[in-house]
Amino acid sequence: MDFIIRQAKKNDMSEVLSLIKELAHFEKEPNAVEVTVKDLEIDGFGEDPRFNCFVAEVNSKIEGIALIYNRYSTWKGRALHLEDLIVSEAMRGTGMGTALLDEVIKYAYKLGVKRVNWEVLDWNEPAINFYEKKGAKVMRDWDVVQMSEEGIKNYIAKL
Q1: 9-24 pLDDT per residue, tens
Q2: How does DSSP assign 57-121, residue by residue?
């Protein structure tokens, strides 16, 4: 399979959003995506970029992405967070996921970070197996904690 991995451009964000929505559907949350193309353009390519993104392209069509951002560990120092590594269903098993992860890890190494973090759903055994084969440690004894926008507002209202 011939594909190229490259840095995302602002005009890629429509296709990036399509893949994000495909992932949401796969993760059984098809209506959870609130981010818009405009949000991605501003947040990724504005004055203060909040993320970096690599894309995998086949015949001028984006079939995969890896979206990352900087993080800080109180124990380790500089870290990188892999928010999502997405490969379209049609392209899974082609090596595209490995190529995207390779790019993320090379980028992390170049930055000199101490750790790369990401989450995986506990029922997504193919992804878990993929990450473990690559040398990642899946920490099954940790739970992900989030507070939604509504939760933030409710918290503030109680202060």
Answers
A1: 999 999 999 999 999 9
A2: EETTEEEEEEEEEEEEETTTEEEEEEEEEEE-GGGTTSSHHHHHHHHHHHHHHHHT-SEEE----
